[in-house]
Every structure is written in structure tokens, then in C-alpha cells.
Amino acid sequence: MNVTREVMTDLLPVYFSGEASEDTKQLVEIYFRRTRTLSESREGCEASRTVAQRSAVAAEAEREKRDLQWARKEFFRRRMFFGMALVFTCAPLITVYRNGRVIGRRF
User: Fold this and answer.
1) CB atoms < 10 A from the CB of 35, how many?
2) What is the pTM for the complete model shown?
């Protein structure tokens, strides 16, 4: 299989971000070993590392946003459950009982 430089340029961000499969990693490493113009490849690698770092930062920001949204929903859910628990706990305290029967409320 003949792998061109453009194909390697496309694969480098995935390779440097660590998301590449084992076959892709082997392909990139074999390409680097066979390439005679290693200096050109290294320049491409530096550019690809920059692209990979930018995509990693964007992915980190997206994950942080998703985590904050989850935390906001979780705290709202916990407040609602606490409110319901408080209402059901206080309900028997405001009811008047006589002879085992409910005769009214105190308010």
C-alpha cells in the first residue's frame, strides 16, 4: 500500500492525540522510519501537534461544560427531593389527631 504525505498529514492529529488504533499507530511509525525527508515530516509533526493540542483543549472545554451542566441538574434534583422530604416530614406535625382520627389542621 502506498501512503502519501497528505494521508500522513491527515492521520497525525489522531496519532498525537492518542486516539489512533494500533494499526494506525504502526502505519505512522513505519512511515516515519521509511521517510528520507525526516526534517519535512518533523515540521509536519510540529504542525500536527499544534492541531492536536488545540483539539484537545476544545475537547476538554466541551467536557467541562457537560460536567457543569450535569452538576447543575443534579443539585436541582437534590433540592427538589429535599423539599419533598421536608413537606412529607412536617405534614404529620401540623395535623391534629384525636382517638386515632384526623380532626383538622392547625392553620
Assistant:
1) 16
2) 0.40
